[in-house]
Specification:
Blueprint (H helix, E strand, L loop, with lengths): L2 E5 L3 H13 L4 E6 L2 H11 L3 E5 L7 H14 L9 E6 L4 H9 L4 E4 L4 H12 L7 H11 L16 H11 L4 H8 L3 H15 L4 H10 L8
């Protein structure tokens, strides 16, 4: 089960999350940070599996901290699969901030009043490399905040094979690996390999980020 770094500028929220995780079997809290700068430092020192990241904080906010933590992960010897995954904590009035966090590579988001059992399940889901929210929730954010990219195509797109582009398009439509496998008559393991190669070639940090990129570059499959 995952080790977790808790980041929130409010002491009561931070201590409450820490107490919950400490009491839950199989979860380990490796540190607490009160701002983004401290989060970046502790993530490098403790190498948690998951970072619970508040978005709105003074100084270095959660979006900038997420980008720096994931950039350091990509530069490490472990490559894109090593190092922390980021699960952002939000309130109902910060959807734009959530989208920006997902765009820089956060793996998912949670509302701060999420029930404890769902929070623990979401951490485990992110640790496993999946999205802890419905594709519909992400599509809602994309429809509201994403815009087609007007700059030149992503440099990694030319490196994708036709099959990888097809898989990325279905990931962009919000389909899980099992459903992609069924549609393309492939094994789930083969689809997982294609997704991994797509993310590596495009320098992406999370499946949610892959969905955003697929939409911004017009690759997301249109579903009936």
């Amino acid at each position: 089960m995952p080790s977790v770094l808790v980041v929130d500028d409010q002491f009561l929220i931070r201590s409450g999350l820490t107490a919950l995780l400490t009491a839950a079997p199989g979860y380990e809290v490796v540190g607490e940070a009160a701002d983004g700068e401290e989060a970046v430092r502790l993530a490098a020192e403790t190498r948690p599996d998951v970072v619970l990241m508040d978005i709105r904080m003074p100084g270095t906010d959660g979006i900038a901290a997420t980008e720096r933590i994931l950039a350091a992960r990509g530069d490490s010897q472990d490559g894109p699969d090593g190092g922390p995954k980021v699960l952002v904590l939000t309130t109902f009035d910060s959807d734009e901030y959530v989208f920006r966090a997902l765009r820089v590579g956060a793996s998912g988001f949670l509302v701060k009043d999420t029930p404890p059992d769902r929070l623990l399940a979401a951490i485990a889901t992110v640790h496993a490399g999946e999205m802890p929210f419905s594709p519909r929730a992400l599509r809602g954010l994309i429809d509201t905040y994403a815009a087609p990219v007007t700059r030149p195509p992503h440099p990694g797109l030319d490196a994708l094979t036709p099959r990888e582009r097809e898989v990325l398009g279905l990931v962009g439509a919000g389909l899980p690996n099992a459903e992609i496998a069924e549609r393309l008559v492939l094994s789930a393991a083969t689809v997982k390999t294609h997704v991994h190669r797509c993310m590596s070639k495009l320098g992406l940090s999370s499946r949610a980020q892959a969905v955003v990129v697929a939409h911004e570059f017009g690759l997301a499959a249109r579903m009936p």
